């Protein structure tokens, strides 16, 4: 096992990122093999349990209510619908279901209670359960943990500096505070970001500084390539090259040796050869299924064909951590507190976000 370092500097990470490619790949692959089985990849299915209508202004997101993106919204799914989707995912080779809701933050009430029952239901299917629901308090994190949640996803998106160029409706510290609230439970942390939003390499290194200096580091880190959606402020961004993805994956693997590095959004734009290079560089987790919340993703059968071609095997559930015990709602030690936390709302203006909002008004 490699020694995990928690005091990486931006310059150290830049030096790694900019190494000659063959040296970078060799170092990343070596570290990967010391900490993981190189022929095993964790497969998750991402399920949008509540789509659209989000009040945030994230420049990359088609679910923001203020933009016009032709995304069909839906109310919170039923427990039965979620169970059916989870069983389908399990049959196709997924070991984890990640449920996403287009919320700014979790609010105590009937909908959150319903999500808790979804968590209990999926955990009883012997599948890992992950949620991405926005900001959460410590008490809400404890309630999710009791229900049997395995992981909570809350991405940092980019560096703290560039974050302000993408999102104006919440602060970077809120992201870190949410992760800290999750860390007060036995739930694992999934946190990563997006490349291709117009940031520079220094911003990518800055994001990795923020993630790698967390102690412990996230158990899972998604590396997303922006999927530019028409109607969003970032609709005109050009796709990042496969070489940028490979370098980002390899650098993440080196600075976060024990983390599962997830090859996430943007895989539809990658060839199988490109994805294979990412796996060689240290990626050992993917999202399967035809959609990632609202953006396209390779069909699960295509992924299984690729796995067969590369000699890869899906990771079994609870390989890295034992299965959480589910506490029924009637036996819960934590109850809804009706909290109203004051998550920040920065007051700066992002011109391209405002332009996209005005464009949406004209279309509507």
Walkthrough of the structure:
This protein is α/β, with parallel strands linked by helices and 364 residues long. The chain is 37% helix and 15% strand. The protein is built from 12 helices and 12 strands. Strands 1, 2, 3, 4, 5, 6, 7, 8, 9 and 12 form a 10-stranded parallel sheet that branches. Strand 2, helix 4 and strand 3 form a beta-alpha-beta unit. Helix 1 crosses helix 8. The chain is globular. The model has no long low-confidence stretch (mean pLDDT 91).
Question: SSE order in H/E notation?
Answer: HHEHEHEHEHHEEHEHEHEEEHEH
Rg: 19 Å
Tally of helical segments: 12
The average pLDDT value, as a whole number, equals 91
Largest beta-sheet details: 10 strands, parallel
Shape: globular
Count every beta strand, where a strand is a DSSP E run of 2 or more residues. Answer: 12
Give the termini distance in whole angstroms: 55 Å
Please bin the fraction of helical residues: 25-40%
Low-confidence stretches: none
Helix/strand/pairing category: alpha/beta
Strand residue content: 5-15%
List keywords for this structure.
364 residues; globular; alpha/beta; 12 helices; two-stranded antiparallel ribbon
Secondary structure elements and their pairing?
Elements: H1 10-17, H2 21-35, E1 40-50, H3 79-91, E2 96-101, H4 110-123, E3 128-132, H5 138-147, E4 151-153, H6 160-163, H7 172-183, E5 188-190, E6 193-195, H8 201-212, E7 220-225, H9 242-255, E8 260-263, H10 272-281, E9 283-288, E10 291-292, E11 295-296, H11 300-310, E12 313-314, H12 351-363
Parallel strand pairs: 1-2, 1-9, 1-12, 2-3, 3-4, 4-5, 6-7, 7-8, 8-9
Antiparallel strand pairs: 10-11
């Amino acid at each position: 096992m490699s020694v995990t370092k928690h005091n990486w500097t931006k310059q150290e990470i830049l030096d790694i990122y900019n190494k000659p490619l063959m040296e970078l790949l060799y170092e990343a692959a070596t570290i990967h093999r010391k900490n993981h089985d190189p022929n095993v990849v964790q497969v998750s299915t991402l399920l949008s349990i509540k789509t659209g209508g989000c009040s945030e202004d994230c420049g990359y997101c088609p679910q923001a209510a203020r933009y016009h993106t032709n995304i069909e919204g839906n109310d919170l799914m039923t427990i039965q619908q979620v169970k059916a989707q989870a069983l389908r995912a399990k049959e196709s080779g997924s070991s984890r279901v990640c449920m996403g809701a287009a919320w700014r933050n979790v609010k105590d009430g009937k909908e959150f209670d319903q999500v808790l029952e979804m968590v209990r239901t999926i955990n009883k299917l012997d599948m890992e359960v992950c949620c991405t629901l926005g900001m959460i308090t410590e008490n809400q994190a404890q309630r999710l943990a009791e229900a049997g949640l395995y992981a909570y996803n809350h991405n940092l998106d980019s560096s703290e500096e560039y974050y302000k160029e993408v999102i104006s409706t919440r602060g970077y510290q809120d992201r870190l505070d949410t992760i800290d609230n999750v860390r007060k439970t036995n739930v694992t942390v999934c946190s990563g970001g997006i490349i291709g939003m117009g940031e520079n390499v220094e911003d990518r290194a800055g994001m990795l500084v923020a993630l790698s200096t967390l102690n412990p580091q996230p158990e899972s880190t998604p590396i997303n390539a922006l999927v530019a959606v028409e109607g969003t402020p970032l609709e005109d961004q050009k796709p990042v090259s496969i070489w940028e993805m490979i370098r980002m994956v390899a650098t993440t693997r080196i600075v976060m040796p024990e983390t599962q590095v997830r090859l996430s959004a943007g895989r539809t734009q990658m060839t199988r050869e490109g994805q294979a290079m990412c796996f060689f560089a240290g990626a050992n987790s993917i999202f399967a299924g035809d959609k990632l919340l609202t953006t396209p993703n390779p069909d699960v059968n295509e992924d299984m064909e690729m796995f067969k071609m590369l000699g890869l095997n899906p990771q079994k559930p609870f390989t890295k951590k034992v299965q959480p015990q589910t506490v029924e709602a009637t036996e819960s030690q934590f109850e809804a507190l009706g909290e109203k936390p004051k998550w920040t709302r920065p007051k700066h203006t992002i011109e391209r976000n405002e332009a996209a909002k005005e464009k949406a008004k004209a279309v509507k």
